[in-house]
Amino acid sequence: MDLTVNDIDRIIEMAWEDRTPFEAINIQFHVSEKEVITIMRREMKPSSFKMWRKRVQGRATKHEKLRIFEKGRFKCSRQKQITHNSISKR
Fold first, then answer.
1. How far is Cα 12 from Cα 45, in angstroms, rounded to an integer?
2. Element at 82 (helix H, strand E)
3. pLDDT in tens, 21-31
4. Which of 27, 35, 48, 82 could form a cystine bridge with 44, CB 3.0-4.6 A?
């Protein structure tokens, strides 16, 4: 595995995101779920790693096969529209 520091930082960021599945990390960085866990264990404090593992274990949104919503991005109906770095007024 030849990953740059920036790649590792991005993998950690994606792994922490609730709605980013491990499959997306694999597509972008060619890193399996097992390898992501190894990276997280190596790069994080033990307490942070344990907290992360507890959060993602069995979480449906981290595994594409367990997701119940359609493919694509989830967007809340109450989320405000952002245009040109300013929030639009309704």
1. 13
2. strand 82-83
3. 888 899 999 99
4. 48
